[in-house]
Amino acid sequence: MKDTLQxxxxxxxxxxxxxxxxxxxxIFPAYRDNGLIGYNRPDTTMFFSAIITFTLQSxxxxxxxxxxxxxxxxxxxxxxxxxxxxNKDGLxxxxxxxxxxxxxxxxxxxxxHFEHFRIxxxxxxxxxxxxxxxxxxxxxxWLKEKLTLHANGTKQWIRNTYPEYxxxxxxxxWFGKNMYIEFDVCVLSNLLYFVFKNDLPLNKHxxxxxxxxxxxxxxxxxxxxxxxxxxxxPRTPLIIYHVSRLMAAFRPSLLxxxxxxxxxxxxxxxxxxxxxxxxxxxxxxxxxxxxxxxRIPVETFTKKxxxxxxxxxxxxxxxxxxxxxYRISSTRxxxxxxxxxxxxxxxxxxxxxLWNK
Length: 357
Prior knowledge:
Number of helices: 14
Oligomer: single chain
CATH class: Mainly Alpha
CATH architecture: Alpha/alpha barrel
Number of domains: 1
Low-confidence stretches: 112-117, 315-320
Strand order of the largest sheet: 2-1-4-3
Helix content: 40-55%
């Protein structure tokens, strides 16, 4: 493990930007991509850098001394960039892109010129900013209250979900006064990770968010219609990865009834999948849930193994409440995929650590 993990950490450190026209010092290069229309642009986003930091911090204790020092350097260089993505008015919420001024769809030719495409701060980036730093307790309590102001039913009700979920007072993906309500099982898993890590008392919004997560697993919707369950992470392996991480860390009682089904479904999917990186995150999920599968020789992986793997998307039509437009929103031509080599190496480092733990 030691040499393999050192190899991955060195790869990650080498990729981290030292500062150039697209990526500030400390930010990991990422690209938004849609191969169907020949689209690829460098994307200056906080997202991948924050989740890399979160994952590296989670394996820190199992790393050797040299790798620990590298991880400290990598994560500190990421965190120094967070203020550039903080709410434009100084609130402690965070955006996918730079905010002062707004740098939405950076390095593009069209979308960046239109205010319509400027997105509000989001729960996902905000949760990871808090999880990877040491916020004051007052800041944690402030965020918890802020989240309730944008939850379903507080100011408006969700429309783009199944009828039985519309009255759930679960959290939405987005902040923003006029932003539509959206449920994403992976985003909710990340947010609830923040709630449990900070030992915050559960309220109706937390309980309904857990109820949503449990239901999409129980009903099998995460297998058959993953896009309807997670607009930003619309693939079953990604949903499994996020839900299992939350369950392994905190064992929420509301999610325990789905544990065996999640294990069985993951094992069945692992036998069928051919994508090397999907195999990795599915195996990581099973390790978290207490099952030791056949080891994947991740030390032999190259960039070629990252082809056709994406961890995050933006669905360009998901905001529309017109039923026809929403129906076609799951079509790949309307999806922007985000690619990040450094995060793929991070997933391999995580797998290697969990396998040997």
